Amino acid sequence: MIKENQSLLNKFNAISDIIILFISMSFAYLIRFYIFQTDTEYIKLITYIKFSVIIIPINLIIFNFFNLYHSFRTTTFIKECTQIIKANAILTAILLSLLFSFRLVDISRWVIIIFYFVNITLIVTKRFILRKTLSSFRLKGLNLKHVIIAGGGQVANEYLDVINSNKNYGYNYSGYVANNSDFKGEKLGDYDDLYDILNRSKPDEVVCALDISDAKFLENVVSDCERSGTKISIIPFCYKYIPSQPYIDQIGNIPLINIRRIPLDNWGNAFAKRALDILGSLALIILTSPIMLTTIIITKCTSKGPVIFKQKRVGLNKKIFTMYKFRSMKVNSEEETGWSTNSDPRKTKFGSFIRKFSIDELPQFFNVLKGDMSLVGPRPELPLFVENFKNEIPLYMVKHQVKPGITGHAQVNGYRGDTSIKKRIDFDIYYIENWNILLDISILFKTAFKGFKNNEQLIKNNGETIKNNIEINKHNGANL
User: Fold this and answer.
1) How many whole angstroms separate alpha carbon 228 and alpha carbon 205?
2) What is the total count of domains within the chain?
3) Contact of 388 with 321, CB cutoff 8 Å
4) How confident is the model at residue 4 (pLDDT cuts 50, 70, 90)?
5) Is there a contact between 176 and 149 (Cβ–Cβ < 8 Å)?
6) CA–CA distance, 469 with 39 (Å, rounded to integer)
7) Which CATH number covers residue 153?
8) Contact 352/417 with Cβ under 8 angstroms?
9) Cβ burial 446-458 (10 Å sphere, 16+ → b, else e)
10) Confidence band, pLDDT 50/70/90 cuts, at residue 417
């Protein structure tokens, strides 16, 4: 049933994309000739409609090439949007090339460029509504994919936890096949029974989640699935060390998984991110300059010490750099080693205010402009804590493969300030492995709308004194 549903959904997407293509071309025509510039000598709309008919097969081929007519049940919306933008960019480039090659002077180039933006907007909107609708259906028990798990150990258990905690994915767990009998759910049989089970129950998919101790059964599981014509997905034993988007090389017929090659290793991606950092930091320095000037004056008038607080942090490739902040604490002996907390007694009254609304972070825009930091990335830590955490928290040092950021994926998901370091690292790893320019833009927008205010406490009493010994909870530390 799920195959029929997916086929129907693919047809719906293709047909609706064709309809949107005509709508987008019409809107582009109206915007160009009725809003941007009124012109009585322009070609009639029907000419553009006829031109759109020629575009249909090109559009379908390109969209299919970018897997936009495949299941996106577990694909992130940002990744789908990225594919839509890429597909439309190629489509637009082809159309402009056709106009140039065949000298089609009757078609306005500006209409094609406007069409690019309108088409992206409409298709993204349609896909978003479709995602929300399907997610709602799946939460109600409709449009489910029925899966059988081959395995009954730790790997199978972790996979089951994921699909049970994400009901919107629409996976229905039908039971498991394993030689042991102490796994969750209904046992359908042993590994030797898999072929008969598949012919009898006809699941949509088998998920092979064998522990390394059951590796000897892998060949039989794959063989039984192929003989019965059942789709199979394999979770590797070492999946915890494999990124979500691995790069695979090949020597002869042996695939090699490069587990630490990341999207920002690509020169084009790195250039796009740096361009965003430069333009964004310049714009934000100009926009926030009145706030920064006011902060400088008030800080200088209300407390002793320098206005700018400089601190050594660990950045890209574990290099030490100097990070700038507005000073929010009294000058003290723990500036290079102390761990700040939400109600830290070292904070000044005005310092607690600027920390509450992240105003103290504004000088870091100059760090971004220098190239030490990025607008978006994992938050940088003190060298002392890096040395401690690298031996205590798995994959902690992976965060240093990219530049640290003023804001990040962890911060906009609530993990800032006095929160779990391990959870932050999980979000940082996801960001590093799944980076794209849209993800950066999305995080910046989320920061703008909900990321400035944090859970730090404002100081209401000036009589608080500095505590020489602050209890440091290394696993639930504050955002320094």
Assistant:
1) 11
2) 3
3) no
4) low
5) yes
6) 75
7) 3.40.50.720
8) no
9) ebeeebeebebee
10) low
